[in-house]
Amino acid sequence: MQRKTPAPLSVWRPLNLDRFLLGAPHYPEHVDESCWRRDAERMAAAGVNTVRMGEFAWHIFEPHEGKFEFGLFDRAIEVLGSAGIDTIMCTPTATPPRWLTINYPEVLRVDVNGRPASHGSRQHADTTSPVFRAHSRRITRAMAEHYRSNPRVIGWQTDNELNTTVSESFAPATRLEFQKFLQHKYGAIDALNFAWGGHFWATAYDDFSQVDLPRPLMPSYPSPGHVQDYHRFLAAATAAFQHDQVEILRAANQDWFVFHNLGQLADIDFRGQFGQDLDFIGFDIYPMLYDEMRRTGGHAATQALHLDICRAYSGNYIVPEQASGFGSQPGFSTMTPEPGEMRRMAMTSVSRGADGIMFFRWRPAHFGAEIYWMGIIDHDDVPRRRYDEASRFFHEIAAIKDQILGTVVRMDVGIAGADFDNQEAHKTYPMGLPSPLEDATFLHRHCYKQGIACGFIHPEDDLSRLKALYVPHWVMWKQEWNAAIEAFVRNGGTLILSALTGTRDENNHIVREQAPGHGLAALSGVKVTEFGRLVPEGSAGLFPLFRQAAMGAYVPPAPLPASSAERKYQFTFGNRQFEAAHLYELLEVEPDTEVLGTWSNRFCAGQPAITSRQLGKGRIVYVGTYLTQQLAEAVAETALARAGVVPLLAELPAGVEVSMREAEDRKLLFIQNTMDISVVVPGMPSGMDLLTGQFVGSIMQLEGYGCAVILLDPDR
Fold first, then answer.
1. Class of the CATH domain delimited by 413-642
2. Residues in the active site (predicted)?
3. What are the start-end ranges of the E strands in 331-461?
4. What are the phi and psi torsion angles at 7 (to 5°)?
5. 143 contacts 149 by C-beta, under 8 angstroms
6. Angle between the 172-186 and 189-196 helix axes, to the nearest 10 degrees?
């Protein structure tokens, strides 16, 4: 396997490996050694080329402080290698052993109520702790030195799903490290007091040693600047914790690739040092872990959304853990993929940027907190349909890997994403409003259903490949983004701005200029003269939102009683009437700006709600409210159509998912049937289905959960 130096972070970055990683997380410590060779032979027959192991085995690598034992994993690696299977090792820092937490109790996380974490779970150690960081470096160095010359160890995963179980800590050591972080950032206490608005509620400090960690509602709200900096600190501490390990691994063997597997996306700034340290990012995907029925649009749409979000952080990725079957921990369980669905979900991951898939897990555990989390092999050591399905997928991808590697996912519509500060700024002052991501989901869902190539992108990435860019209520806008944004529009792109965009600075202060600030008013040709909160769609009022306002997530409100209907605000757009949700803005429009939508009732009647301004070959659309599903569809029909955005397939049947990966010399059209029944897909472009080797005519039939990868004719 060859590893190239990774390109700079970008949504357009392909993976820097010449191998498509195919395999599973493997836990030889969970099974009798007599089973290892049979496991390796079964893996090889299924098409596995790589396994991942060691992430929860610190107690085995170092059973006593300073005493290292690698024999168990050395033997496992050798057995796998004899079957042609390579190993990704993991630093085991997600589960420090009991001797460590007994001897160094100061490494334990402390919750908001002052209770230290207890041993017996995972992520119980505080990654901000200097003591824990020292032990992390020690075990990483010992493992790196031991495996540096082992040709079967080809790469490393840092830790495991950092910040997934918990990201915050309120330990004394965390407080001290936070104070050091602030002193380094601000230099003088007066600068911190200005940034946090110390004259409000007498929250100013005399010295950095007085600063405490922000605790919600004790008894009222802390400064948004204080909360934002706490989460910036957590992100910086997480990056520093990982950086320690990366430095050691890189020094030991320059040929190793290094990545991390994401679970949740809490308190990690992927565009900062955390992502820059890595070759690529891994994203653990369990589509059936999420609510199918309420707001997700189904697990297929949710999987596509999550993968598109992940890709914006660093480009193509691998999936170190892809659901293979039923999963559970004591407090929850997931749906079970039906026959064919495991393969389909894996193919969706490939279609949206994955250059490696590892089904979780090779064998299920017989003990511990995931005894019902199924693997490729069943509890009774019998390979059944999941093994057959994994084998089919592995062999299919291995046969076409050269066509896939080097391609990136096409996007005609970009949604601004992957910006840590804007993600956190909403959490510091949510007001019961949907987050930028929750708002953007409406547009993403529409594009997904219509077969429009859509994804997330950071404004610092190359925008020239897009036809349209939607910015979902980014309150923190950077002036330095404007040049690229304006060039994108002048060259023919459509920029869609939304309410409240550009209204705060990096300190979470409201900007002292008429919104939208940071130069966006001049760009869009509108100024906001007034804004106000609206009763959310279908809501009984605003007060129920109070319970979630302290850094809580948006929750659908209670049903709206008939007596509240008179409080609805409406607007016309494209000869249709819409009900506004969450917020209204009244707009002052420049002479060269066209009014596309107008408020139609109450005191707002007759005032602009949605506008469009021509700039060069493109235009800027401004939407003075929040999206609903109906409004997202109308904006797409109007603004995206004007931008020349068309679906990847002219006729996309319900339940069929389509996406494209492309390079300069080829285009691959991925089509997945997300339903259990056969479907006919009309209007197919000409090309060859790489999975079957057959040429495709104008109509194609897909079996239930069927997949196709069409290598399009070069002239398309």
1. alpha beta
2. 161, 321
3. 332-333, 354-360, 408-409, 413-416, 454-457
4. -70, 165
5. no
6. 100
How high is the pLDDT of residue 490? 98
Segments of the chain scoring below 50 in pLDDT: 292-295, 543-554, 560-565
Q: In angstroms, what CA-CA distances link 343 with 292, 684, 695? A: 19, 22, 22
**268: its two tokens:** 């990690």
Distance, in Å, from the CA atom of 445 to the CA atom of 646, rounded to the nearest integer, reads 15
Residue 161 bears catalytic tag: yes
Residue of 321, 424, 486, 585 marked catalytic? 321
Calpha distance 233→239 (Å, rounded): 10
CATH of 1-16+32-48+279-404, one of 3.40.50.300, 3.90.550.60, 3.20.20.80, 3.10.580.10: 3.20.20.80
- Which amino acid, 576? R
The model carries a pTM of 0.94
What pLDDT does 202 receive?
95
Q: Is 122 annotated as a binding residue?
A: yes
- Is 150 annotated in some ligand binding site? no
Q: Where in the chain is the domain with CATH 3.20.20.80?
A: 1-16+32-48+279-404
Instruction: Indicate if 486 belongs to the active site.
Output: no
3-state secondary structure of 559: coil
Q: Are 400 and 688 in contact (CB under 8 A)?
A: no
- d(CA 632, CA 442) in angstroms, rounded, equals 6
Q: What is the DSSP string of 636-662?
A: IIIIIHHTT---SSSS--TTEEEEEEE
pLDDT of residue 538: 62
> Helices 436-450 and 420-428, interaxial angle, to 10°?
120
Contact 670, 347 (CB under 8 A): yes
The DSSP code for 547 is: G
Return d(Cα 98, Cα 116) in angstroms, integer: 15
Look at residues 651, 665, 654, 668 and name the one whose alpha carbon lies nearest to residue 708.
Answer: 668
What is the pLDDT at residue 546? 41
Domain with CATH 3.40.50.880 in the chain: 413-642
Task: List CB contacts of 515: < 8 A, sequence separation 6 or more.
Answer: 500, 502, 503, 521, 527, 528, 531, 585
At 617-634, the pLDDT tens digits run 999 999 999 999 999 999
Backbone φ and ψ for 556, nearest 5 degrees, come out as -55, 135
Got the DSSP string for 335-358?
Answer: --PPTTHHHHHHHHHHHTTEEEEE
Region of 647 on the Ramachandran plot (φ > 0 left; ψ -120 to 50 alpha; else beta): beta
Q: Which of 161, 389, 486, 585 is catalytic?
A: 161
pLDDT at 217: 85
Token pair for residue 385?
């349909």
